[in-house]
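My hope is that you will study the protein record below before we discuss the fold together.
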Amino acid sequence: MNHNALSVQVQEPIQYVGLPPKLRSSLTETKDYFQAMDNFFRVFAIRPGERVLMLTDPLLDPRVVDAVTGLARARGASLSQYMAPSTTLPRVPEEVKPLVQKADFVVSTWFCSIEDPFNIAMRKSGQRWIKITYFRDLDLLMTPQARFPIDLVGEVRGESPDAAILREMLVGSKIIEGGGCGFNPKALRDPEVVALASRYGDPIDLLESFV
């Protein structure tokens, strides 16, 4: 009895030479990403030779620290970091004050960065600060908030009691998030931004109760 072998041929998909490959969805987001990156570079306006100090907490996305560190290195600046147990220190610890005094540019996640008289005095003396509140996750650079024109959120205007308080507390610094998310203690927050930030321990209730 003869058994003829069954031959199975698999047809290769037709290759069309000269047609471009299908665009990846990420490519359509490139322009938005670079717009956000421009905000990031403008906000973190580190200058050559400066001493940058980051006051952080364990729940900050370490990629945010890496991003600022890389920018500092690219601009010929040095960077050091002091990590506190949380963002809710009532004031700057005494052992940290010498580090702050030596710095030219301070990036902080601590809420006392805003209202501690020591920090206010440092800003009045010319020290530059960035207060991180919602830029706790590097993925926030991919949100619309990161592309918001920073010139529109970089200063306090108005004559309300809240505006006067913020001007006094933040003299010499910017009410700006790294990446373009504005800081306003009473502002309603975009749900997407809140959800991302909450992954890294952002205490929303504390933030909203400042003034």
